Amino acid sequence: MAQNQATQNRSAVPDTFPAWVTHHAKVRGSRPAMREKDLGIWQTITWSEVARRAQELAHGLSQLGVGQGHHVAIIGENRPRLYLAMMAAQYLGAIPVPLYQDAVAQEMLYVLQDAEVRVAVVEDQEQCDKMLEISGQCPALTYVVYDDPRGLRNYNESMLLSFDALLEKGREHEKQHPDFVTKSMASIRADQPAAMFYTSGTTGKPKGVVLTHHALIDRAIAIQELEGLTDHEDVLAYLPPAWIGQNMFSYTQFLVTGFTVNHPESPETVSIDMHDIGPTYYFAPPRVLEGLLTSVMIRMEDASALKRKLFHACMGLAKRVGVRILDNDPTVSALDRLKYAVGDFLVYGPLRNALGMSRVRVAYTAGEAIGPDLFVFYRSIGINLKQLYGSTETSVFVCVQANGQVRADTVGPPVKGVDIRVAENGEIQVRSPGLFKEYYRNPDATAESFTPDGWYHTGDAGYLDTDGQLKIIDRAKDVGKLADGSLFAPKYIENKLKFFQHIKEAVAFGAGKSEVCAFINIDLEAVGNWAERRGLPYAGYTDLAGKPEVLELIKDCVNSVNADLATDPKLAGSQIHRFLVLHKELDPDDDELTRTRKVRRAFIAQKYGVLVEALFQGKTNQYIETEVKFEDGRTGKISADLKIETATIYPGNTKKAA
Hints:
It is a single chain. Helix 4 packs across helix 5. Helix content is 38%, strand content 21%. It has 3 domains: 212 residues, 3-Layer(aba) Sandwich (Rossmann fold); 188 residues, Rossmann fold, CATH 3.40.50.12780; 167 residues, ANL, C-terminal domain (GMP Synthetase, Chain A, domain 3, 2-Layer Sandwich). It has 21 helices and 27 strands. By secondary structure, it is an alpha/beta fold. The strands form 7 sheets. A 5-stranded parallel sheet has the order 4-3-5-6-7, sandwiched between helices. A 5-stranded mixed sheet has the order 23-24-25-27-26, sandwiched between helices.
């Protein structure tokens, strides 16, 4: 029977992650649990093998001093062995703490110290080097276990231990104490911590969010029931495991539902690996969907005139009826359905295949608000993309759009078990079985996160629509008003800008001001391709971003957004008056973005204060010199005299822009 037993009787299902692994090993032991692509060949690990190896690893970790309540750092790309290490830690009642693999050593230092990490399980030499660099400042850190031995042959540090050596330690310990791990697993309760994720720290130091087995498992079961997920789903795990979205999707949901998780060979091969696997259940933040769309549009610009004409004609039809057909709207005429079927054969089907989404049955986007135009694009070509709403503190799943009730301007109704209310100040507050246990060693922050009557402060502004669907306006702290009292929602404006393939990032300013201004980052790949086809030479990002032709290209995008904003009575006053194209890309290494690529708005406004002032003072240009960090730890400076462009402002209530 394909449908997982969890949908039949919640009281009968396992209530901890170790119990789920044992369950799957018994029920579907010979089925594939994980696949990993190595040297171009997919290697399969069955559920029986997963349970066996996780138990050996647990024995090994116990030999390194890991026990109940201890923290084990997990650092690297998506790799089966790192997932097994998370399971092994949970077997012992220990708590895995995933860290972002692209973070520099000093960023990791705070987490390792705060969580008093004893053992770090890492992917490769790069992560080992980071651990060795800061080990002197982390007295609790005693072992670093590495998966990939390449480059580590001549490392003699006593704290380094290979993954294979850890497995061997585990086997030896299991021979002497065969029941040790089994007894440990039996003692674990559902209300105990299962994992700890550190917040992105957009407004200060990251906080350790402690989530229990019950909180995570309950939310996974709710989504399994909602979407009818089965153990036959295929998932591609390609986002950072330290992000709760990816971890919930390819670890928690994976262990609850029992489907197959596929691990790409490398971040560079994700597109190829998507085609190999053809995932049926897919998850992507808006930035990934933006990148995929950009690559499609670049290819179309290089296509013949006939193909471009066919593409745009079919996309016009898709925009008009595609979403309605996906939602099984009976009012779509037979002629439009026939035209769409032809378009599906000629354009939409090949496009889904090019994106690696031919088999996608359910696709989610979350992490930040997605632009409505981007959202509609994917749904119009037949991809069942839906929005969900949640956070690390809520185990992700608070609201999810139901099939046939998907709208671009909402994130859906509350998921089963969740209650939502909107405070007088417009803030969304939540009660849910998936709420976090606490912020680690931070009782004051924990208490501040809840109302006196026990509702969680999300910090988001929004409201429940007449049909019970939640609308998110923006982060409550970011939503403001212009000097004339009209609404200013920066994220909404930024998302409309980022729909254009030539714009990678945008930051809008205007709260308390008489008008809106913006910083823009161009997409180097898309604009570079555009420039090359026009014979426009350039020597890197800064040079290209300052070209007069590029500024005109971006101005066209901004003007188009303004024309669209003019049709919205609430946001017509938020049209962008002036903008500049930044001389450098906003970068997490420069603290301008979080590791999940969320804009650190206040930091950017402070760092580039001279540019913000120049925009609002009506200047035509402004010189700036900025310090940047390179990947090898060195610092340098980039300077430029930035030209400030004036955009076209349209009268309100004009006809919606095409």
